[in-house]
Amino acid sequence: MCGIVAYLGEKQAYPILIKGLHRLEYRGYDSSGVAIINGSMNLYKCKGKVNKLENFVKGKNISGSIGIAHTRWATHGQPNDINAHPHTSQNGKLSIIHNGIIENYGPLKEELEKRGHIFLSETDTEVLIHLIEDIQENEKLDIAESVRVALNQVIGAYAIVVISKEEDNKLIAAKKGSPLVIGIGDGEFYIASDATPIVEYTRKVVYLEDEEMAILEKGKDIVLKSISNISHTPYFQQLTMNLDALEKGGYEHFMLKEIFEQPSSVRETMRGRINIHDGIVKLGGITDYKQKLVKAKRILMIACGTSWHAGLVGEYLFEELTRIPVEVEYASEFRYRNPVITEDDVVIAISQSGETADTLAAIKMAKKKGATILGICNVVGSSIPRETDAGSYTHAGPEIGVASTKAFTSQVTILTMMALMIAREKGSITTSRYQQLVLALEQIPKQIEETLKTNDIVEAIAARYKDSRNFLYLGRGYNFPVALEGALKLKEISYIHAEGYPAAEMKHGPIALIDKDMPVVIIAPRKGNYEKVVSNIQEVKARSGKIIAVVSKGDTQVREMADHVIEIPCVEEMLVPLVATIPLQLLSYHIALMRGCNVDQPRNLAKSVTVE
Ligand code: M6R
Description:
Layout: E1 3-8, H1 13-24, E2 31-38, E3 40-47, H2 50-57, E4 66-72, E5 87-88, E6 94-102, H3 105-114, H4 124-139, H5 143-151, E7 156-164, E8 167-176, E9 181-184, E10 189-192, E11 204-207, E12 212-217, E13 223-226, E14 231-232, E15 237-238, H6 254-260, H7 262-270, E16 274-275, E17 280-281, H8 290-295, E18 298-303, H9 305-322, E19 326-330, H10 331-334, E20 345-351, H11 357-368, E21 372-377, H12 383-387, E22 390-393, H13 406-426, H14 431-442, H15 444-452, H16 455-465, E23 470-475, H17 479-494, E24 497-502, E25 519-524, H18 530-541, E26 546-552, H19 557-561, E27 564-568, H20 576-594
Parallel strand pairs: 18-19, 18-20, 20-21, 21-22, 23-24, 23-25, 25-26, 26-27
Antiparallel strand pairs: 1-4, 1-10, 2-3, 2-4, 5-6, 6-7, 7-8, 8-12, 9-10, 9-11, 11-15, 12-13, 13-14, 16-17
Bound molecules: 5-amino-5-deoxy-1-O-phosphono-D-mannitol (M6R).
The site of 5-amino-5-deoxy-1-O-phosphono-D-mannitol has 16 residues, from helix 9.
């Protein structure tokens, strides 16, 4: 949700800012802008993607070594030139970029209007920069102090960077709820929403905490303080991110690259955590909480979107292996429904970005009520890992395509390892079955590799159905969440309406939709409720629906009935989601591409949803 980049140093700011915006474009891409101080405040912004901004600034004055830049995902006000960031104060001397929502911007705006402020945009951000200016002029404060005082009047979430024409050697940054990382170079500072725009210049970073601000002044050390004016000591960290992971590496899209990376991303998720010789799974990050998990009366999984689907797979896994009751909750519902939570509950928050606002809020609420909170996140150093008691990183590497792919398989891998670890500790699994499953899990990367070979078959199926208006995805047991995930992938990147259902639920309503034009994707491996799924296929065929079946290698029964089959390797029932998801990701990718959609940056979406 909005990307922020800022630079202060000896270099020209513009190339660093633009490159940074491209890296952050996955966070929002409806408008973008840049402000650079070079004697005057030169500000350029426009509706559309970063490329459009680059064309717009051609021939304009973009020199200067201090600047801020922003790519937006609209919350307050239409995506247009005026609402794009940066925003300036009334006197034009201050500029701000902001990620988040100022909830009390209405009353603040009214008050400022009474004092003569005139607003150009519909945004909450413009109100904040006017407030800072108002405080500065009335209380005769420097820019850092004006920002600090203003933030004490603000309700809501923010990551901001402010620059002032009159103090053009300073960047002032602050955050609450939305992420911000500061890169410390040699006599220079970088600021960004995540580390991707920073990593090629410096690996030394500081992650800002909530209600913390940074005063970055040329030639001086970083100064950190709380917005209540208490001095903080910076905690420097080293980035370990690999730069290549931020490029497309020869693939046409990040999404395709990330789909094909899954053999290695799942391997990375397991690296150092499975000892194949003695068949032991060890998740170092949660070792101290093993007993808490074993004794948990209930496990709650909270997440949104694809991560919620991973949580659903987790429910099946945990209940089967550990016999601990599990509930899977949408974080956005959970946080507002006054749920019953006790100290015997363990909450597992799942999030690729580690920044999802609803998941973060749900964590804070459950924490207050005394539950133990564990996290499963991909982005190292993000907010959720810092808010939880302990957790396990998925180590899938940066996921840039807005549609989540490799993050899902890595989340399911971690959940499988967690469930196995607890089951062993609890004694709810026999040693031989435990070892059998550990060995089977270890084989999964190879089986994903094999599954990826279906790409051509899937592409041909995509060509046949690319113009369909609706899709139905069906699965049972472990494959019900896979059906949901397949449907979500298709709708978010191809804009085709798709529904995921437990296969047996079809006859309670969705069967009415089926006719000769309705493609039905059925996950039908030769495991679990196979015969029942076969009956569901017959029900679809009897109504002339078109069957695209994901089947186990060598299957003949479904092949006879289905219009198309995609074969996946035969794996343990509980591991099927790790392979069955792959062709569904590919199907969405190819259909979206054939329909001319922007696969990596689908309309209206952003990669990390840091607002409610
Ligand atoms: O970063 P998170 O895993 O917390 O994000 C949750 C959802 O916003 C995310 O999975 C979303 O549904 C993706 N666009 C799905 O592809």
